[in-house]
Design goal:
It is built from twelve helices and 13 strands. The chain has about 300 residues and is an alpha/beta fold. The two termini are about 25 Å apart. The structure holds beta-D-ribofuranose and calcium ion. The site of calcium ion has 9 residues, from loops.
Length: about 300
Amino acid sequence: KRKVIIDCDPGIDDSLALLLALNSPELEVLGITVCSGNVPAKLGAKNALKTLQICSSLHIPVYVGEEYPLKRELVTAQDTHGDDGLGENFYEDVNEAKFYEGGVDFIIDTLNNNDNVSIIALGPLTNIAKALMKDKKAFNNLDEFVSMGGAFRIHGNCSPVAEFNYWVDPHGADYVYKNLPKKIHMVGLDVTRKIVLTPNIIEFINRLDKDMSKYITEITRFYIDFHWDQEKIIGCVINDPLAVAYFIDRNICKGFESFVEVVEDGIAMGQSIVDSFNFYKKENNAIVLTDVDKNKFMSMFLKRMFNGYDD
Ligand code: BDR
Ligand code: CA
């Protein structure tokens, strides 16, 4: 099993990513850390607990980390994910289950006390940047780092050029690209925009009739309405589960190595600059994913989540 920390901001698609990870036998999820992004961090941590409850995984600890981006004011995405971050279903808090404080220290301690821990980051990179600032050496033990974020040849989703996670905390994102001792697997909008959970897939999920079917249907309804209102897309783009799927199976996305930096302010704030022509002559710090096998993803997603389904 591969040991992982999932750093996230749940969030509807973060929750789907957690469900996928927790139903994947290849992964041992050591803990979930949360920062502010889609919703303020403490609300995100509660949402992580709700998702853990759905798949009977409340033994996995949830830690709240940074509540604000490094320098910018916090801008959440509650228009996209709902006021509660889970599509305005306003589920009751999970009985007894509590999240812990100290997400940044959890990341550092886990790296220091284990070999070969990987991090899958599904939100702004604030927790990771803070952990790097506090104990860079701990990251020498890091195995792999996957970040859902950025955009290479595709329009942004927060500005013409910026993707949400890097736009919320551009300073955090840039710090991580400049300081992480490992190459970052950048699972950006180029690949995630191709992953759409359509109403017919949701209908299929309902026919499989598991507890998870109800949860997935409920949390995605608001998100589907948002996609229709904003972009006339039928269904919803689910970004974060692709990062988990790619971590498990490298054949799901393909890309190339490059130097990447993130624009910290100004009109292009949050843009991931991918030097694919090597103009800057800098050492590659990223693997930028550009192609995705969406059928492979969807079949993995459905098989993992719903035992008994086989394509
Ligand atoms: C990213 O932004 C968030 O709204 C999603 O959870 C995802 O991590 C996509 O840009
Ligand atoms: Ca997210």
